[in-house]
UniProtKB/TrEMBL annotation:
Binding site for ATP: 12-19
Keyword Ligase: no
Alphabetically ordered keywords of this record: ATP-binding, Cytoplasm, Kinase, Nucleotide-binding, Transferase
GO biological process, one term: CTP salvage
Protein name, entry field: Uridine kinase
Localisation: Cytoplasm
Residue ranges that the Swiss-Prot or TrEMBL entry lists as coiled coil: none
The family this protein is said to belong to: Belongs to the uridine kinase family.
Reactions catalysed, as given in the entry: uridine + ATP = UMP + ADP + H(+); cytidine + ATP = CMP + ADP + H(+)
EC number: 2.7.1.48
One annotated GO molecular function: uridine kinase activity
InterPro entries noted in UniProt: P-loop_NTPase, PRK/URK, Uridine_kinase, Uridine_kinase-like
UniProt source species: Holzapfeliella floricola DSM 23037 = JCM 16512
């Protein structure tokens, strides 16, 4: 019998609908059984740099993340241990001083743009999902979200998109599609795909007597 939690990875470009898909899966299980972890919480702490320099960092490159810490935390959670999860602040471009106690659960959803890039992360996952949404839809969603929620101007979103988000997507994110078990077009509105994923998770949990 499998004695470890199930890890589901949900990836795709920024604005593809990763969070919406993850939330839809999360909402169908009771929260004592499932939890969501964002790769974004594991952006490197840049608190030692002045704000102007933090603004210029390429946040779409694999090296922007503290992947060793993320792997360490995942291994602990898979071992039924709690971790102190970092909290990331997009407005100040760095980690906040607080952390959140993350308790272990039977199902962990890990969501983020580069979670399939590192083989050590891929090896930990039971189900790998790639949310595939056209570039034009993603940039429109991102403009709205970054201006409403992340304290950005229209010009800054466009500049960042052209200089980092788009090239890094094509260099690092889109190529990880080949590692996925399932490609979900259009994200959170794809109810057929989301239902299939929920059914799969339910069947694993009930087979292992965890439901
Ligand atoms: N199907 C959709 N239609 C319209 N807006 C959407 C849809 N899916 C997501 N959004 C919006 O787009 C933004 C990005 O979606 P999100 O799920 O957070 O994507 P990601 O996590 O991949 O960046 C959010 O503001 C969300 O509300
Ligand atoms: N300080 C930061 C850190 C990250 N970003 C952008 O966030 C994107 C990933 O988050 P999604 O929810 O959109 O997947 C990524 O594309 C980074 O460019 C940022 O703008 N500022």
């Amino acid at each position: 019998m499998n004695k470890k939690p199930i890890l589901i990875g949900v990836t795709g470009g920024s604005g593809s609908g990763k969070t919406s898909v993850s939330r839809a899966i999360y909402d169908s299980f009771s929260d004592h059984a499932i939890t969501m972890l964002e790769q974004d919480s594991y952006y490197k702490d840049q608190g030692h740099l002045p704000f102007d320099e933090r603004m210029d960092i390429n946040y779409d490159h694999p090296l922007a993340f503290d992947t060793d810490l993320l792997i360490d935390h995942l291994k602990r959670l898979m071992n039924y241990e709690s971790v102190e999860k970092p909290v990331y602040d997009y407005v100040s471009h760095t980690r906040s001083s607080e952390t959140i106690l993350q308790e272990p659960k039977e199902v962990i959803i890990l969501e983020g743009i580069l979670i399939l890039d590192d083989p050590r992360l891929r090896d930990l996952m039971d189900i790998k999902i790639y949310v595939d949404t056209d570039d034009d839809i993603r940039i429109i969603r991102r403009i709205k979200r970054d201006m409403q929620e992340r304290g950005r101007t229209l010009d800054s979103v466009i500049d960042q998109y052209l200089s980092a988000v788009k090239p890094m997507y094509h260099q690092f994110i889109e190529p990880t599609k080949r590692y996925s078990d399932l490609i979900v077009p259009e994200g959170g509105e794809n109810f057929v795909a989301i239902d299939l994923i929920k059914t799969k998770v339910r069947s694993i949990l009930s087979r292992e007597g965890k439901l």
